[in-house]
């Protein structure tokens, strides 16, 4: 049964992979199907073989790796389940602006997130700089290095001394349920989620569409380093998956009631209530 559940997750990941590689839009029905497969695997009580695990990222959300393929210590493909909890924890705002080594794409499962985009123009004078570029390394309990770790215990950013002026380029882009967006490699951005709300996505890093090992994080120009410990504080992947499912059902109920689909709205609310009680 454990193997069967892992196959469910693999099928969901493979479906998103093909959609992304073919630059095809994933419909709400597609995402519902994928989420059903992934959630079913996550909440299954694994008794043998690998188990899903959660860790808190540098940006404050909780991440659950679904599929990780590394090549020479670097990300080849990495699929994760991301959840910002309504717990006020949103990471260190001084290091909110960051870039990714690989092309990234996200599919929104629930909640509302706002994405901001930035430019970083190198300067030579500290007076002219707003930020410095920081290099990133990961630890997994065995060693710390710039090679990616799928199951991380902490991550550290170190000031490289490269100064620059950061400018927000546009108004925020609002992301809601069933939407998708992508982030080019080495593009600077930040994601903002209200501290008292839940937001969840399925996320992929895909180096087949671009990879930059030196993609930095931006931080204070006068600091040296900062470390984020990735302890999820007892929150399990199954708990995260069920919390997200409850919010999805509530959002479905709200949407259906807005269209006067009272019976289906009550069904969605009822399922959410039953899951809360379980």
3D architecture notes:
By secondary structure, the chain is of the alpha+beta class. Helix content is 27%, strand content 36%. The chain has a domain of 43 residues. The strands form two sheets. Strands 5, 6, 7, 8, 9, 11, 13 and 14 form an eight-stranded antiparallel beta sheet that branches. The protein has a six-stranded antiparallel beta sheet with strand order 1-2-3-12-4-10. It is globular and about 65 Å long. The chain starts with a helix and ends with a helix.
How would you summarize what this structure contains?
The chain is α+β, with helices and mostly antiparallel strands. Helix content is 27%, strand content 36%.
Distinctive features:
eight-stranded antiparallel beta sheet, six-stranded antiparallel beta sheet, 4 helices, 36% strand, globular
Fold blueprint:
Layout: H1 2-21, H2 28-43, E1 55-56, E2 62-71, E3 74-84, E4 102-110, E5 113-122, E6 131-139, E7 144-145, E8 154-168, E9 173-175, E10 180-183, E11 188-192, E12 199-211, E13 217-219, E14 225-229, H3 237-258, H4 262-277
Helix pairs in contact: 1-2, 3-4
Region (Disordered): 144-164
Biased composition (Low complexity): 144-156
């Amino acid at each position: 049964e454990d193997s069967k559940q892992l196959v469910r997750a693999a099928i969901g990941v493979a479906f998103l992979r093909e959609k992304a590689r073919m630059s095809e839009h994933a419909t709400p029905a597609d995402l519902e199907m994928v989420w059903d497969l992934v959630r079913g695997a996550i909440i299954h009580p694994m008794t043998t073989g690998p188990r899903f695990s959660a860790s808190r990222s540098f940006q404050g959300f909780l991440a659950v790796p679904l599929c990780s393929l590394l090549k020479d210590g670097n990300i080849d493909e990495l699929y994760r389940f991301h959840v910002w909890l309504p717990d006020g924890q949103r990471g260190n705002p001084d290091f909110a602006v960051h870039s990714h080594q690989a092309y990234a794409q996200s599919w929104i499962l629930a909640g509302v997130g706002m994405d901001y985009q930035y430019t970083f123009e190198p300067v030579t004078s500290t007076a002219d700089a707003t930020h410095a570029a920081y290099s990133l390394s990961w630890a997994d309990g065995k060693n710390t290095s710039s090679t990616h770790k799928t199951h991380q215990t902490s991550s550290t950013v170190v000031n490289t001394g490269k100064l620059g002026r950061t400018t927000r380029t546009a108004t925020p882009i609002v992301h809601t349920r069933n939407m998708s967006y992508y982030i080019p490699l080495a593009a600077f951005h930040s994601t903002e989620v209200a501290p008292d709300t839940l937001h969840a996505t399925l996320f992929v890093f895909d180096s087949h569409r671009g990879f930059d090992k030196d993609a930095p994080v931006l931080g204070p120009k006068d600091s040296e380093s900062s470390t984020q410990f990735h302890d999820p504080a007892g929150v399990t992947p199954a708990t995260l998956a069920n919390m997200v499912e409850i919010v999805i059902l509530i959002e479905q109920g709200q949407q259906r009631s807005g269209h006067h689909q009272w019976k289906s709205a009550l069904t969605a609310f009822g399922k959410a209530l039953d899951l809360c009680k379980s």
